Amino acid sequence: MRDYVFIMIDLNKEKFNMYNKVITLYKSTDKNVPLIVFNTFEGDGEGVYKELQNMGCSFINLLVVGNIDWNHDMSPWYMPSIYSKEKSFSGGADGYLKLLIDEILPKAKELIEGEPEFIGIAGYSLAGLFAVYAMYKTDVFDRVASMSGSLWFYDFMEYCKRNDCRKLPDKIYFSLGDKEANTRNPILKTVEDNTRELSEYFKNLGSEVIFELNKGNHFTNTSLRSAKGIKAIL
User: Fold this and answer.
1) Count of domains in the chain?
2) Is residue 219 part of a domain?
3) Is 31 left (phi over 0), alpha (psi -120 to 50) or beta?
4) Which structural domain range is residue 71 located in?
5) Three-state secondary structure string covering the chain
6) Residue 123 CB partners (closer than 8 Å, separation 6+)
7) pTM of whole model > 0.90?
8) Dist. CA 130–CA 133, nearest whole Å
9) Which of 18, 86, 174, 198 is found 20 to 30 A from 213 (Cα to Cα)?
């Protein structure tokens, strides 16, 4: 159901609901600064925003979308679960992307100062996969950051190479924990090779690509890693 419920937290932070998504906009007081979309598994992205502030990244509008149906909204197509007790991935990315572009982004742009210098998209884990997938489905995003992206997803590497981006971003950031590929799961084990391969692939296409390997596993310092990725594309 479409509804807008605004809750003012402070002068630079607003929350509103739209189609059951809980959206938090961290606004810059400056005009015409970048707008970055960050899809999150849980919470409102405050930890990421604080890390960005600590890094001196104050010239940014950060749009955080929460209450996401994670395995549905962030997955490009159906894939069985990689764990027996978890839901399968049901391929709702196209529908969610339409909602993001047609409804959520326009509302956010009404609330910020001026026009964004550029619009970027960032995400961690499955949202990192979604950020890369969005490059192939829309020309809205100028820059992309995929932190510990789920680039092990079935047939995703082949999809990227078979298809053309709607708009090749001028900057793309990839990162991964140096222990993420140390697993017995044969699907997850491919994540580092795939991330490195895609980094080189987009670099060869002409994007400015940054690949960074962080210490730790998939769940180490997620807010800090997310902020580092967003900073890299600013």
Assistant:
1) 1
2) yes
3) beta
4) 7-232
5) CCCCCCEEEECCEEEEEECCEEEEEECCCCCCCCEEEEECCCCCCHHHHHHHHHCCCCCCEEEEEECCCHHHHCCCCEECCCCCCCCCEECCHHHHHHHHHHHHHHHHHHHCCCCCCCEEEEEECHHHHHHHHHHHHCCCCCEEEEECCCCCCCCHHHHHHHCCCCCCCCEEEEEEECCCCCCCCCCHHHHHHHHHHHHHHHHHHCCEEEEEEECCCCCCCHHHHHHHHHHHCC
6) 38, 39, 40, 74, 129, 130, 131, 145, 146, 147, 149
7) yes
8) 5
9) 86
Could you tell me the CATH number of the domain that includes residue 219? 3.40.50.1820
pLDDT tens for residues 18-59? Answer: 999 999 999 999 999 999 999 999 999 999 999 999 999 989
Cβ contact 106:130 at 8 Å: no
The predicted-structure confidence for 139-194, as pLDDT tens digits, reads as follows 999 999 999 999 999 999 999 999 999 999 999 999 999 999 999 999 999 999 99
